[in-house]
């Protein structure tokens, strides 16, 4: 019976027309392949599911512009506060807007918004909030921060005049710097109906543009520079960049109640990102080179100088059950999240041909069998692995085979690989994949219970 109801719900959901309520500008970092779209989606989806109970309403994404996915619509079923909380955590989001209205001119976009803005703004914002309305032209072929062109001030003034019925209901003062209501009008090419990527010609796009009226209401994690390797006392020879570390912590769904283990912690970048996102979480790092290459005193000072609670750092090899027992002192029932960027092929000892992902799986199985689980049955495992190919679309099965992780191992560990997989191209010959594992038991998917 419940199965049928679920099926009906699913069908209803997929038949509903896509109505975007938000627009996100992703962080570009100059090179779109560096931050793959799968990682962006995975990070924001994970952050949103932390905000929602039950965690079953995934957002949907669609492109705003032809030829780039740096700007996307997001349809999300929760509240604006949930959305902004999630965006604010994410390293791959630059900023997010609420979609208030759309149309074929500034004025139709503004008049189509009149029904939505009363619910989008608080009474205080409408009666006394300061505001500004800026226009941006997205019809060029530009990327990153330069995606939009500024408009001639005459055009911007015309936009405001056209939107007069809308702006008349805002009673607060106009303020150009940091207004309470940062309103934007975007001019967009007539995508997607008239154009596809191949035939897109920016000069055609000058005809029949679309107009959106938006409210900018939050920014992505905006303090990444504070975590830059060159601002830290302790860095290893191959430090994890902040954007990758924050994305990992987010897809691991780190929150204030989490206990987090990095079994190959190095200078503890993953734990630093976790502590920055959720200062009450408990972090534990194991490092074989502890107090030799990695100076634990310096690692701790990288936390304390940022007012973050320091991790518990243990020196040793995580494959040794005794060191894991010491780690579990901080998480007697097992960890909620294991994060790792293991040193594949960078071991100084030549006799070491270990496969860190296979090793992590074996640790999880060994401790589970011993009745002292390392990872909780609800826990997530997030690992970077290298993948020697230019091909960025590879199947999970191929990847696990290449990393010597069998189906039997996965089932014994009680985990399954989440797809699609984010492939980050590091250079021409090597990519790195972010693998996310979640419980394979029906903890989340309760259809059969
Ligand atoms: C504003 O609203 C008035 C009254 O509803 C209407 O007559 C007018 O055309 C509207 N102006 C614009 C620019 O939409
Ligand atoms: C986590 O804890 C910090 C500091 O105690 C607090 O500021 C923050 O609001 C908490 N986050 C959540 C989501 O509860
Ligand atoms: C670790 O760093 C601290 C502070 O920089 C220094 O005083 C200490 O001697 C270092 N420890 C080792 C083992 O190198
Ligand atoms: C790609 O990166 C790997 C790892 O950093 C390095 O060993 C390799 O030499 C690089 N290859 C090229 C072609 O730059």
Automatic annotation (TrEMBL):
Annotated signal peptide: 1-17
GO MF assignments: methyltransferase activity; nucleic acid binding
InterPro entries: DNA_methylase_N6_adenine_CS (IPR002052), SAM-dependent_MTases_sf (IPR029063)
Key words of the record: Methyltransferase, Signal, Transferase
Superkingdom: Eukaryota
Gene Ontology cellular component list: cytoplasm
GO terms under biological process: methylation
Protein name per UniProt: Uncharacterized protein
């Amino acid at each position: 019976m419940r199965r049928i109801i679920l099926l009906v719900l699913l069908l209803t959901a997929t038949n509903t027309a896509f109505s975007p309520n938000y627009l996100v500008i992703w962080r570009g970092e100059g090179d779109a392949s560096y931050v793959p779209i799968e990682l962006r989606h995975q990070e924001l989806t994970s952050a949103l599911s932390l905000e929602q109970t039950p965690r079953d309403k995934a957002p949907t994404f669609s492109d705003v512009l032809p030829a780039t996915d740096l700007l996307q619509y997001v349809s999300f079923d929760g509240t604006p506060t949930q959305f902004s909380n999630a965006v604010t955590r994410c390293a791959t989001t630059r900023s997010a807007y609420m979609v208030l209205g759309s149309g074929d001119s500034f004025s139709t976009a503004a008049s189509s918004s009149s029904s939505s803005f009363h619910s989008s703004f608080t009474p205080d914002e409408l009666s006394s909030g300061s505001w500004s309305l800026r226009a941006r032209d997205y019809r060029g072929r530009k990327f990153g921060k330069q995606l939009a062109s500024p408009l001639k001030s005459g055009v911007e003034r015309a936009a405001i005049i056209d939107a007069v019925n809308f702006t008349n209901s805002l009673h607060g003062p106009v303020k150009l710097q940091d207004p309470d209501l940062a309103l934007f009008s975007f001019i967009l090419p007539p995508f997607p109906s008239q154009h596809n990527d191949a035939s897109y010609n920016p000069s055609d796009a000058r005809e029949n543009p679309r107009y959106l009226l938006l409210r900018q209401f939050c920014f992505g994690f905006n303090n990444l520079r504070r975590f830059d390797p060159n601002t830290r006392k302790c860095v290893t020879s191959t430090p994890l960049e902040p954007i990758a570390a924050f994305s990992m912590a987010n897809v691991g769904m780190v929150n204030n109640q989490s206990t987090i283990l990095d079994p190959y912690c190095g200078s503890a970048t993953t734990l630093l990102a976790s502590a920055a996102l959720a200062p009450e979480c408990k972090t534990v790092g194991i490092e074989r080179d502890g107090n030799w290459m990695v100076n634990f005193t310096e690692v701790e000072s990288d936390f304390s100088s940022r007012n973050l609670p320091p991790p518990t750092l243990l020196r040793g090899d995580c494959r040794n059950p005794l060191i894991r027992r010491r780690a579990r002192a901080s998480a007697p029932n097992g960890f909620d999240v294991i994060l790792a960027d293991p040193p594949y092929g960078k071991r100084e000892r030549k006799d070491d041909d270990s496969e860190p992902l296979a090793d992590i799986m074996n640790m999880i199985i060994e401790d589970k069998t011993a009745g002292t689980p390392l990872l909780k049955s609800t826990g997530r495992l997030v690992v970077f692995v290298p993948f020697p190919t230019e091909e960025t679309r590879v199947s999970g099965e191929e990847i696990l085979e290449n990393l010597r992780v069998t189906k039997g191992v996965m089932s014994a560990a009680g985990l399954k690989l989440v797809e699609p997989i984010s492939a980050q191209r590091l250079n021409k010959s090597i990519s790195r994949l972010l693998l996310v594992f979640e419980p394979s038991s029906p903890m989340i998917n309760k259809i059969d219970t």
